[in-house]
UniProtKB/TrEMBL annotation, chain A:
UniProt keyword annotation of Kinase present: yes
Span of domain Histidine kinase/HSP90-like ATPase: 18-143
SUPFAM superfamilies: ATPase domain of HSP90 chaperone/DNA topoisomerase II/histidine kinase
Protein's UniProt name: Serine/threonine-protein kinase RsbW
InterPro entries in UniProt: Anti-sigma-factor_SerPK, HATPase_C_sf, HATPase_dom
Gene3D superfamilies reported in the protein's UniProt record: Histidine kinase-like ATPase, C-terminal domain
CDD domains (alphabetical): HATPase_RsbW-like
Automatic annotation (TrEMBL), chain B:
Gene Ontology molecular functions: anti-sigma factor antagonist activity
InterPro entries referenced in this protein's UniProt entry, alphabetically: Anti-sigma_ant (IPR003658), STAS_dom (IPR002645), STAS_dom_sf (IPR036513)
Native species: Cohnella lupini
Pfam families: STAS
Gene3D superfamilies: STAS domain
Name used for this protein in its record: Anti-sigma factor antagonist
STAS domain span: 1-110
PANTHER family listed in its UniProt record: ANTI-SIGMA FACTOR ANTAGONIST TM_1081-RELATED-RELATED
Family label: Belongs to the anti-sigma-factor antagonist family.
CDD domains: STAS_anti-anti-sigma_factors (cd07043)
Length: 145, 112
């Protein structure tokens, strides 16, 4: 974890490799940042969950050629009244906002898990912005407090 | 994540401790599949020491629920914290899964 400056309005950044075991580092990152920022448990949980859902998707599906190591950057910017998280990867184009939403009213037999992670992100965050960049994908999450 | 399995009163209690997330979901699913493969059909999933769950973890619970249904067994999810319950609630899973406030209550339900 690196701080680019200190104080409000600066980014706290972590770079993760495209492996699921890196999610352990994501949790440690938010535990540390949440403790330092005095976030309520619920807020820390919602931010961690939203990032984990997106990262799990990217790690599982973003690099289908499986041809090496890539870094995914998570940058958290805290200002009074809002938290902004930017996730950037070099994976294949994937706009989570275009994914079909799950039907959460189906029974056990019919129920499928697809799309649930992105559904959580949309539900928990105030804003979700997707941008296809030259290098890959950028997703900006904003939570207004 | 750590999984502690206890055979008790004719049921299999799987205590899933720590984080059931994208990293650990596969191990949890494998543990369940192995137990079901041994012939167990009545399960209590004990979430008392679960710190965190995401959709990858919910997927494991759904896989288990479908499997147990096909075996005509029973699954009860017990001891959810408020935050774990929130995730189940958001997903609509609370209306398709059986839950209990304690392991004791779950054990009574699961063999009834």
């Amino acid at each position: 974890m690196t701080d680019q400056g200190n104080g409000s309005g600066r980014d706290t950044v972590i770079r993760l490799a495209n492996r699921l075991s890196e999610l352990d580092r994501l949790h440690a990152f938010f535990d540390e940042l949440g403790g330092r920022s005095d976030w309520p448990d619920k807020l820390k949980w919602d931010l961690t969950l939203s990032c984990e859902e997106l990262l799990t998707n990217t790690i599982n599906y973003g690099f289908p050629r499986d041809d090496g190591n890539y870094l995914i950057t998570v940058a958290v910017n805290v200002e009074p009244g809002r938290i902004e998280i930017t996730l950037e990867d070099e994976g294949i184009a994937f706009n989570p906002l275009e994914q079909e939403q799950p039907d959460i009213h189906l029974g056990i037999e019919e129920r499928d898990i697809g799309g649930l992670g992105i559904f959580f992100v949309r539900k928990l965050m105030s804003e979700v912005v997707y941008e296809r960049t030259d290098a890959g994908n950028r997703i900006v999450l904003r939570k207004f407090l | 994540m750590n999984i502690v399995t206890t055979q008790r009163d004719g049921a299999t209690v799987m205590s899933i401790e720590g984080r059931l997330d994208g990293h650990h979901a596969q191990a949890a699913e494998a543990a369940f599949i192995a137990l079901a493969g041994e012939g167990h059909t009545r399960f209590v999933f004990d979430f008392e020491n679960m710190q965190y769950i995401s959709s990858a973890g919910l997927r494991v619970v759904l896989v288990a629920a479908k499997k147990i249904r096909s075996l005509q067994g029973r699954l009860i999810c017990a001891n959810m914290s408020d935050q774990v319950r929130d995730v189940f609630e958001m997903s609509g899973f609370l209306s398709i899964l059986e839950t209990a406030a304690s392991t004791e209550e779950a054990l009574t339900l699961v063999v009834s």
